[in-house]
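Expect chain and fold; see below:
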Amino acid sequence: MAAPEPGTDWQGRPIDCGSCRHRARRDGGDCEPGRVCLRDPRASRIDRFFKANPDLAGEGLTDPYFLVRALAVRHASLFHLPALIADPDPEVRAAVAERIPDRLLFRLRNDPDPRVRIVLAGRVEDGALLQMATDPDYYVRVVVARRLPVEALPLLMCDPVADVRLEVARRIGKDWMVSMAWDEEVAVRLEVARRLDSRQLEVLAGDGDWRVRYAVAERAVPSCLVRLVGDPEEDVRVLARRRCRDAAAAVGENGHQGGVDG
């Protein structure tokens, strides 16, 4: 099979392997046109080049093509990374944020691009993470909600974006969860219905969405189920009535009444 022909670089210029300063790498098998090439615009091919030639990663940090710089960051010495904290391209700064030592993360905390701050939110701890709970980008706050200590999650309970509140509902302590039963977003209330103690589910038995009421019917105690046996939604009625019958049968078999947690 013939070797692939070199393509064009990131500026659309033909790649000339003959004049490439890394020609020796090709002769040694560490560069292959169309597959492993520093001048190729494709990220996968550039990354393969640095994997095969990690000693050249430091050189790639000053390349005019932002993808070369961003991928070089993955392989370069940590000692060279602080110089790219102010790189003009956010992809490069995000790559730096993934590897830079913890003690230098504060230098990126006010980065203008959310891609960089999302990486930071996945790395910083304690007070620095808490400060990011008010970040203007919603997905930064989603990442914060996934990592904050449980006791700090009430700070995001009323976030204006439902995706953030949903992350909170998935982790928040049981003492606070009841307060989220009146959230305007169905997905949040549904998560609350799945996590609340079965004896607390009555607060959602009259929910306006049948999916939430169905989740209640799946787990609620009999005293709550009686509110759902006449539910306007057939699936909810059927489930509530079946569970009521099962509870009554269990009482008859055991000779005493007990809670049913489903």
